[in-house]
Amino acid sequence: GAVVSQHPSRVICKSGTSVKIECRSLDFQATTMFWYRQFPKQSLMLMATSNEGSKATYEQGVEKDKFLINHASLTLSTLTVTSAHPEDSSFYICSGLGTSRSTDTQYFGPGTRLTVL
Amino acid sequence: DAKTTQPPSMDCAEGRAANLPCNHSTISGNEYVYWYRQIHSQGPQYIIHGLKNNETNEMASLIITEDRKSSTLILPHATLRDTAVYYCIAVKTSYDKVIFGPGTSLSVIP
Chain A: residue nearest B87 by CA? Predict the structure, then answer.
């Protein structure tokens, strides 16, 4: 149980285009989802916290107009990278907040590798 | 959330137990210790969590010291597939967000 999927697994796009990444909780409802970014040889960096039906909360330094997050249902959150540039190339990972032994636990998706040319 | 400290890297022989330490000396009473691992180019995988009692599941055992200032994740019989970066995190029960440190890079050697 507690499976999170992401689509696509990898995407290559041209500079200036927008890319949408989907995050789905497959066997549980996630009122809260998180979006992370990971650069090579670095740890995960939290970008934003997404709550179903409300606006996302962005971490300091993350541009909300560039990284649009929509959490329209209890099983789906999307991250849109608008006007992507090569410096946005990264590994994007989402997680859904589920429950393990009655305790809130984050379950992560497999990640999406974005390459901007 | 309390800061955690882990060794940057460890080696373990295949088939032996891997013992990964974590220091969380400033942990508060309502913070759980969670362990995740990340295999190269994949999303993190939840392993185990605990509050003050030792815990065991099909993947690993978690030993938390009585003063809760440190813990050890034990993989009883390490395999090559256990090679990964292991993250120890201390978070409150509300679990509103998690800050990942650099973790421990475990290499299981044949």
Answer: A43
Q: Are A33 and A77 in contact (CB under 8 A)?
A: yes
Exposure on the CB side of residue A10, measured as CA atoms within 13 A = 5
Surface-to-core class of residue A101, CB atoms within 10 Å of its CB (0-12 exposed, 13-18 middle, 19+ buried): exposed
Alpha-carbon gap: B87 to the closest alpha carbon of chain A (Å): 9
List all residues 6 or more positions away from A61 whose beta carbon is below 8 Å from its beta carbon: none
Q: What is the pLDDT of residues A49-81, one digit of tens each?
A: 998 888 899 999 999 999 999 998 999 999 999
Q: For the residues A24-28, what does the mean pLDDT come to?
A: 93
Q: Which of B46, B100, B102 sits opposite A105 (nearest CB)?
A: B46
**What's the pLDDT at B100?**
87
Angle A69-A60-A66 (CA atoms, 0-180°, nearest 5)?
40
* The pairing of beta strand B70-75 with beta strand B84-92: unpaired
> How far is the alpha carbon of B78 from chain A, nearest alpha carbon, in Å?
23
**Closest to B68 measured CA to CA, from B55, B52, B84:** B52
Can you tell me the distance from the alpha carbon of B38 to that of A110, in angstroms, rounded to the nearest whole number?
10
